Amino acid sequence: MDNKNFNFKIHSFIFNKEIEREKFNILEFGVREGRSTKMFLDMIEKKDGRLISVDVDDYSHLFSNKKWKFIKTRDDNINLISNHFDQNFNIILIDSLHEPAHVINLINMYWKFLEINGSLYVDDISWIPYSKGNWRDHEFTENINFKTFESILNLLNSNIDKFILECNFQGSGMARLTKLSNENLSKPKKIITRNNLIKKLIRKIK
C-alpha cells in the first residue's frame, strides 16, 4: 500500500474524527509496519487509554509502551483475545485478512465489544485504484475490495437503524461504522438494484 495515501487516510479519516474523545480504548487487527499502531499510541499519549493489537506475525518488538498489549494470534481467535478485554472499545480497526466473508464475520464477532457511538473501521474497501488501466491496476485486489465494499453495504441494508456508515475512498479506501444500538446485527441482506431491468428496457425500446 502507498505510504502517503495510507498515512493521509488514517489521519484524516480516523485521527481527525476520533481525537476529541476524552479517553481511548482501542482494538486493532493487523499491525504490519505499525503505522496505525503508532497513530493510536500517539492519540493515547495525548489523552489516555489503552491499545490492544492482534496479528498472526510477531510485532511485539515494534513498540515499548505500557499502554499497549500485543497478541500474536488469528484475528478470529475470540476466546483467547477476549480474555484480555476489561471494558468495551470505542475504536476497532479491521486491517488483517481482507476477504469479504471474513471481514463480515469479524464485524459480527466483535460488535458486542464496541460501545454505543464507538467506531468500527474496515480498511481496503475501494477498488478504484486497482481497476483496469488505473494507477494500481490489479484484477484480484479490484474484485476483493469491491466485494468487501458490497458486503458492508449489504450489512447496512439489514441494519440501517443499528449503525451509520461513512466511506473514504482515499487510496485503498476505508469504511467507518458508528454503532447506534446494542442489538445484535442481522445477517447481510443483498441489495436488489434495477440496473439489469433498465438495460432490458433500453434493449426493448431499441
Strand content: 15-25%
Rg from alpha-carbon coordinates: 18 Å
Helical amount: 25-40%
Number of strands: 7
Element layout with pairings:
Blueprint: H1 3-18, E1 24-29, H2 35-46, E2 49-55, E3 68-72, H3 78-81, E4 89-94, H4 100-110, E5 114-123, H5 139-157, E6 163-168, E7 174-179, H6 195-205
Parallel strand pairs: 1-2, 1-4, 2-3, 4-5
Antiparallel strand pairs: 5-7, 6-7
Helix pairs in contact: 1-2, 4-5
Folded structure, characterized:
The protein has 206 residues and is of the alpha/beta class. The protein has a single domain, classed as Vaccinia Virus protein VP39 (Rossmann fold, 3-Layer(aba) Sandwich), CATH 3.40.50.150. The chain is 35% helix and 22% strand. The protein has a seven-stranded mixed sheet with strand order 3-2-1-4-5-7-6, sandwiched between helices. Strand 4, helix 4 and strand 5 form a beta-alpha-beta unit. Helix 1 packs parallel to helix 2. The longest helix has 19 residues. The mean pLDDT is 93.
